Amino acid sequence: MSSQKLKKWTPYLLTAPSLLVVVLFVIYPILNSVFRSFQNKETGGFTLEHYQYFLTDPLQQSNILYTLKIVLWTVLITLVFSYLLALYLRFSGSRLSKWMGMLTLLPRFIPGLVAVYAVILVIRDSGVINRLGMLVGQEWQLGWMFNEKGIILMNIWFNIPFSTLIIFASLSGIQQSIIESAKDVGASKWQIFRSMILPLSYKDALVAVTFTFMGNVGSFTTPFLMGGNSPKMLGIALYDQFNSYMDYERAAALSVLMFLICSLSAVVYIYSNLKEKEWEKRA
Amino acid sequence: MIESKNNAANQRALEKRTPVWTAMGEVVTSFFKGLNVRRFYHGVGKKKFFEFLLFAVFLLFFYGPLMNTFMLAFANIYQFPDVVPREFGFQWWDFVLSQNTLVESIATSFLLAAGTTVVSLIVCLPAAYALARFDFKGKKLFMFSFLLSNAFPKIGLYTAMGIIFYRFNLMGTIPGVVIVHLINSLLFMIWLPAGAFRNVHSQQEEAARDAGASPFQTFVKITLPLAAPGIAVASMYTFLGSLEEAQGTLLVGFPEINTMATSMYGVILDYPATAGAVFALILIIPSLVVVLLFRKYLVPSSIGKSLTGK
């Protein structure tokens, strides 16, 4: 009896420490932020003024649009290139593609700041590209620093390897035999892609898109070092509210707005994650 | 007028190149003379040619900037129109290593990373074991709450935590920064070891129990060693993640806590490229060492799977 009781409680005891950490340092802060974002600073009463500020102030509006523009371009470019790269890695079979597979892994282990710095040293006006231009007597000032072009370039540097890996893992799950059999009955390459590869991999491509979207809405380091003064990405605007203006109500409201923008895609991510946890059923 | 003056200056700079540079230039031109593009195209065939082209573009985009930075780390003199530094040496290493705050930040970083990894192991391994071995009510909700912490913008979460941290007096303290790094590690530290524990057959544990081992003995002597590779990979992610974590540390720890990553912001904004490159290389060394040590676990398709939490 007592050992059965113990067995019933064991999983709860084992998960307690990590659950406590999440409740105390993730869920409680988030709820607190949501609550505070509706709070008037002086009276403590209910108000929508902080949201109103971010949604109607022209400067803040342009920040939101600027962020969405950068994120959507990043998602689009990343999806196209990483899908093509994943297809190549999966179906080429040459030694060169194996090398590229390994080399796709490495950027994940490069500290983000180092990567941003390395790219800045190449694209800035006194960077490598302009120096190479000088060699052939040309002025190759890209003008990509301190605007959205540099940020998008950096974002795709970070996200292509990452999305490629997710899509590649999905494509690796497609057995060679079913592709061979489709070829045997005379299917063209395009038909195989349309009717087999795309349906079997679009879900993971969607997960990759979700990750890219969420990861870049709140990006900080890249726009901090490469972005201009105005408009700013939301991550920087939030940092300013928190650190420079110390306006915690507005900071809370902005972070809730960012949560909402992300939650659109977070729903997709969490849903596909919980649904496809097959190993959980196998246990 | 100013332009022509500039051009003249550039011209002079071009002419003043040292032998190292001229030698490099000769190597490059002779390389391209030997590598006649058209002959190469016909030699290897259309398919191979485009494959090489793709590989070259891939390397240039992802590794070109990094290689350039490594080269600059060993430059003594790197002036404007030069692509390759005029003089190589360790001058800027001396400079960086003589900056006390930078050296201290390196020590802080490693202490924080080690501390975070230990705390994360203690907090997460029991939960990973529970997920792998038990079916319990609320399991879905439990996993959902962890996905939640990963599904929302990090910077929003950090500010939310920061507001709480002010109340708990955790701003600018080591424990506060460890908590931020810990939160980032939870998902990997639970998901990967859970998979590893699942792969240990429960018959092996039962055999140990039959031979008279206590549940704890069984766990330490049988389960843990068998799951060690998975746990090691997860710990590696946590350690490296903590070393490179910059924005959360900046928000919660600055200015009291200086890590390598937060110092890097200042280095990028204020120091010359050559000093920045040295510090970037120092920041990257731990990652390279760990990747070399763990290279047999780094398989593209399985990493891709672990990314989606499957």
* Fourth-level CATH superfamily of the largest domain in chain B: MetI-like
Largest interface: A-B, 106 and 96 residues
Number of domains of chain A: 1
CATH architecture of the largest domain in chain B: Orthogonal Bundle
Fraction of residues in H or I helices of chain A: over 70%
Strand fraction of chain A equals under 5%
Oligomer: heterodimer
| Averaged pLDDT of chain B | 82
The first-level CATH class of the largest domain in chain B is given as Mainly Alpha
Q: CA-to-CA gap between the ends of chain B?
A: 64 Å
Low-pLDDT runs of 5+ residues of chain B are: 1-6, 11-18
Q: What is the terminal separation of chain A in angstroms? A: 25 Å
Q: What helical percentage do the residues of chain B reach?
A: over 70%
Main sheet overview of chain B:
2 strands, antiparallel
Shape of chain B: globular
Summarize the structure.
The complex is a heterodimer of chains A (283) and B (310). Chain A has 283 residues and is mainly α. Chain A has a single domain, classed as MetI-like fold.
Notable traits:
heterodimer, A: mainly alpha, B: 310 residues, mainly alpha, MetI-like fold, two-stranded antiparallel ribbon
Task: Provide an overview of this structure.
The complex is a heterodimer of chains A (283) and B (310). Chain A has 283 residues and is mainly alpha-helical. Chain A has one domain: MetI-like (MetI-like fold). In chain A, helix 2 packs across helix 12 and helix 9 runs antiparallel to helix 12. Chain B has a two-stranded antiparallel sheet. The longest helix of chain B is centred in the middle third of the chain and has 34 residues. Chain B has 2 domains: 61 residues, no CATH class; 212 residues, MetI-like fold (Orthogonal Bundle), CATH 1.10.3720. The chains are: A mainly alpha (283), B mainly alpha (310). At the A-B interface, helix 1, helix 3, helix 4, helix 5 and helix 6 of A face helix 4, helix 6, helix 7, helix 8 and helix 9 of B.
